[in-house]
Amino acid sequence: MSHHSHPAPIHLPDHHAAEKMAATIKGWARELGFGNIGVTDTDLSAAEPGFMRWLEKKYHGDMDYMAKHGSKRSRPAELVPGTLRVISVSLNYLPDDAQDGWKVLSEPDKAYVARYAMGRDYHKVMRQKLQQLCTRISSTFGSFEYRVFADSAPVLEVALATKAGVGWRGKHTLLLNRQQGSWFFLGEIYTNLPLPVDPPTSSHCGSCSACIDICPTQAIVAPYELDARRCISYLTIEHKGSIPLALRPLIGNRVYGCDDCQLICPWNKFAVATEESDFAVRNGLDSTDLVTCFAWTEAEFQQRMAGSAIYRIGYVQWLRNVAVGLGNAPTSAAVVNALTARQHDDSELVREHVQWALEIHNKNTINQ
Q1: Residue 260 buriedness (CB in 10 A; 0-12 / 13-18 / 19+)
Q2: By CB atoms within 10 Å of each CB, which of 51, 270, 285, 309 scores lowest?
């Protein structure tokens, strides 16, 4: 687990001592900027059948890693032996200086980037904060077993956060919280600390179906059920190959992820802007022109995206996504020229999406 020999579990004399310790840890977590924090046990038996059904329906698409860990994902103590408790935290990421999401989506010449990806890669930020919290716990209470996760291992994050009372699962399958909305990341500490568990919160979606109705590709196939193969976040980030033809026109100008289900959610009226400077907008990613970012060389892409989550999809996939955005943009000389300049790109994947986009603009020109 952590990098030292297995210490004996911290022994707490009574329930009162355990509660006091939990309260202390939560206070430190808030000082580190976490929005919500809860503690739960490792029993995910209620969530496991639904997860297995989701895999059986192949809703995970190419995300082989969702299936390959067997039951480790739904059984935390199989992933990290000795785990008694999971500490679940949320970290708000919406920068208050970003262009309004709807505004960027309504300008088809702009490249829409999911709000979570406009600043520094959250994996690093979350892991550092969780590590700081664990260091503080061990320096005060003595060494203990732990392992921190930030969307980085077979962990059923939303199920754990729901059990820990950090929020409830919305119909779009993301976690929602009455005070914080949904613009936050989740992180976990698997630990052997015998902390008292928190009760789950109740669900507050009611009869609202705004997220289901707004989804551009109708990826939310039923309340609380997402077919990732249709989801724009999956298609632009996780999916490495050719984007299915029928879905391309529906992607619009979304070149990295999609936020429609969060933008429309009434609970995000209560969203709290992040206090984390690492999540501030970098490189004008809240509203770059498609034509501009299609012209970047690989070196420019790497330099601009260094330290960003977008860096991880790589240059070719970025160009593929932007080509789709350009295909959906209004026909103009600038758009056609940008596409034509990449007609003979080194990547077959890029060429194919460029060809598709050019065919659309040719048709538009003929029909004018």
Answers
A1: buried
A2: 270
